[in-house]
Design goal:
single chain, mainly beta, four-stranded antiparallel beta sheet, 11 strands, globular
């Protein structure tokens, strides 16, 4: 059975950093496209960053230059390094893995709160 489990969220002051991790199991991680999404209070879920099977990367404009997405296929992990965090980054962060025209998996989410 496929699972994605996020970790690394928490409370951080503006300007601080956090590193989120997503551990995958139960499927062939290396064959899947992967993305990070977030959903802030009263907002719709939005794409934060993605990294494809081949390593192509894209970011939302709001996080460019501050966030770095990476994946380790051998360890079956997806990561998101978040620097210079802002209050507007407060959200539940979700990892997503999908196989084009196939399976689509989500983690349970991890809360990130940026506040002084």
């Amino acid at each position: 059975q496929a699972h994605l489990v996020e970790s690394g969220g928490g409370l951080v002051q503006p300007g601080g950093s956090l590193r989120l991790s997503c551990a995958a199991s139960g499927f062939t991680f290396s064959r899947f496209e992967t993305k990070w999404y977030r959903q802030g209070p009263g907002k719709e879920r939005e794409l934060v960053a993605g990294i494809t099977r081949s390593g192509s990367i894209n970011y939302a404009d709001s996080v460019k230059g501050r966030f770095t997405v990476s994946r380790d296929n051998a360890r079956k992990t997806l990561s998101l390094q978040m620097n210079n965090l802002k209050p507007e980054d407060t959200a539940v962060y979700y990892c997503n893995a999908f196989f084009p025209a196939g399976d689509n998996y989500w983690g349970q989410g991890t809360q990130v709160t940026v506040s002084s």
